[in-house]
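Cont'd.
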Amino acid sequence: MTWTISAPDETSRDRAGEEARLRAVWSNPPGWRYWTTVNNTQIGLWYCATAFAFMLFAGVLALLIRVQLATPRNDFLTAEVFNQVFTLHGTVMMFLFAVPIFEAIAIFLLPPMLGARELPFPRLSAFGFWSFLLGGVFVCGSIFFDAAPNAGWFMYPPLATDKAYSGIGADIWLLGLSFIEVASIAAAVELIVGIMKCRAPGMRINMMPLFAWYLLIVAGMILFAFPPLIAGDILFEMERMFDWPFFDAARGGDPLLWQHLFWIFGHPEVYIIFLPAIALMAMIVPTFARRPIVGYSWIVLAAVGTGFLSFGLWVHHMFTTGLPQISLAFFSAASEAVAIPTGVQIFVFIATMLAGRVLFTVPMLFGTGGLAIFIIGGLTGVMVALVPIDWQAHDTYFVVAHLHYVLIGGMLFPIVAGLYYYYPLVNARKLSDRLGKFAFWHMFVGFNVAFFPMHLSGLWGMPRRVFTYEEGTGLDVLNLTSTIGAFVFAAGVLIVVADVVRPKHRQPKEEFNPWNAGTLEWISEPEENWGVRSIPIIASRYPLWDQPELRAKINAGDFYLPDAREGYRETLVTSVLDAEPIQCLRVGGTSMLTILSAVALGGVFVATTFHWWVVAGVCGMVFIVAVWWWLWTGTGAIPEHVDKNVGLGLRLPLYVSGPASVGWWAMFITMVGDGTAFGSLIFGYFFYWTIHDDFTAGLPGPGWVWPSISLLLFLAAWVALIAARRANRAGSTGVTRLLLGLVLILDLSAAASALVGPTTTGMDRVVHVYPAIVWILLGWLVLHALVGALMIFYCAARSFRGLMNREHDGDLVNVVLYWHFLTITALTTLTVVGFFPALR
Amino acid sequence: MRLLPRELETLWTLFTAPVVWALHFLVCYLTVAIHCAKVDPGASLAAIRFMLAVATVLALATIVLSATLAWRQWGFGTQEPPHEEPTREDRRLFQGFATLLLSALSFVSVLFVALPLAAIERCAS
């Protein structure tokens, strides 16, 4: 260890005073303002509860589907309502439950698990939650107005681009979910920075809880998986709203591009859902096997390996689209390869259970039962990953059976296991053992009765998504069985819900750490909001098993940051590999701004759906003002001292900038996601090039002159900004401000000249896909240039107000980082649209 | 001159082998997709297959290099896992071991992806 530790100074300790101050700093506001809290415990719980509520709603939709299919030629639902119901069922389960529930659990669990007070950006978590809630209600509510999306959860064009068929539902899907994807990416940024930079001192990467390893990988996957969908959403919405023909084959477009973009998101998403569930198992299994996990490194291998391989599988959803067979074979091979790391995890759990003495508690029942179901789903997955079998099974109930075995076994059961396991952290009481076992057997039996027959009905030819079937086709009994099973399963879910909501105030509180687990999250006290009383030094993977007196010392305030003398919410920032303390970070507290920003951004998306352009514009302005205000008042504040005594004789800086700071990391990660979305648009450009002999269709391009001029201006702006950063570091305030002004002028001129080319050559966006894709790329660039201009303006304003200076240049350094990405975007876009048509 | 580069103190070496897998995968897929769409859908893939076989060998060689570095970081296998001590040394051993495992997985996965090159001779069936 490079940092030194001395004994706590006992002479001047006033423990009661320390606790009172900490409690005051971390307390939630009273009355209705309670809802403005940003504390990870509350946000995490609300997030979980909301996701669960959406799950129950989508579950009811599933039951409607099963009632309709219980008998042949049933008229319980009309075909149109059936289409809306199954589309919304899939959409809500995937986008509003499966992915967000893990962001929710992570926000709740990670700080105590890592020994941190908070995640680094609590207001961002709160913003993400409110965005999720608003977007989710908007999407779910549509069905009550007969306006729900009805083209299947993956919204294939040309069905979904056909306005006469799909109505406004497709717009609600596209815009509502884009809004929620913003929340997911916000959560990914929060989780990556939190796991890499906010672990307790001593928690080196070889000691990190496996849950954190998994969440780190999953957050990274979100960063590369969601942006292609956002890019696809943009193209899709431009076609629906303004008739830009991205997916219209008659005008050079191609529906297959949507399938690519959707599944580049959609397949990794399955693993984004599955890995965190396995992460819960990796916390639960060692506790009940009463020993450390066997093969920690193997789990890391499996998590990282699955994370990567999952990006090479997307075309296995497109085996029947007529791609060259050798392409299909690559994806088939990768789909088989991913079974290796997936299997490794299961064997690690089996080995851990064999090596220990297993207690079969309710969490273990749900966990192992879920894995058994998942293995069946995995095996049918290996089957449908083979092209010839997929050709037979595609779009039949065999696939429905497969995906439910994977998702319910690999995700829902482990979640319920996690619910039973972690409930004492919420309420200091356990859920009922008896009800839990009762629920498990209902769910386990009900699930298999419902979904196993679907393998058969699929193989016998029953197609997905058709609202009824004929009598005497041999499907009657299978479907009736499935419906009965579905209701038994639903009864099990209902028992879980009843167990959670039943009043428990008469039930005595459990002792601390009721399962006798070894990991750090169990030091969290449900009554306290401060996360940990003091931030410990960690020396084991299972500190509660291996570090005696740890809890007593944490709660006595014997470690870091035992006090909040200055009245700020503080946590430690540590180094990535060895978790050596490097900064005392002050995080944002309670604020209305998060709700205001989320409502305003939600307003933009909702108003756009209904083409209320003025409202959308006003909401957009409110959003920009709210975010400006949020950043201005909540970030980059100049502290009253350079450093602070955080306890045990350690002094840490209160302000850092550049790669040492969490803000720099957040910018970097956000821009990686942004770059992925941009890459997806570039992929679109070249996709059209591959499918046509002449992808310009003989239409004029933007020429090379104006793109070149624009590029030179962008490069000049970049150089000027780097010079501004140097001038600021040198303390030349006047020169810095002048250079920032120059950057602003260069940037805006660059953006304007980027648009001159296609305007002067009269590129008409609705005639053909070539002008449309050029306009989209340039539009993306110009939008980023405008955001860049706002950032420059912000830095200049901070400089004039004395909030940014030589020693406190975090804002400027982060903007320079943004500008590196902007410059790459400009270089790529302008070279491609300006020069590629002549080169090809 | 040293044969192997100096050991890096970073998290990112963990991802070398999977990144090589991803690049190899993309090269295989994109080359074939562009060739089959732009050149001649019915044509033989002989030249492309040879090129991709070379790419496969390069990818495997890079992964072996990553594995060798990882093996060194892991102390040439002299230490047994679980590498759970709170020391810098154990952290390095853990990184080495995990990187080695990932290299093995990536090696096998590259081979998997390359298999169709041995079996399929044309774009269209």
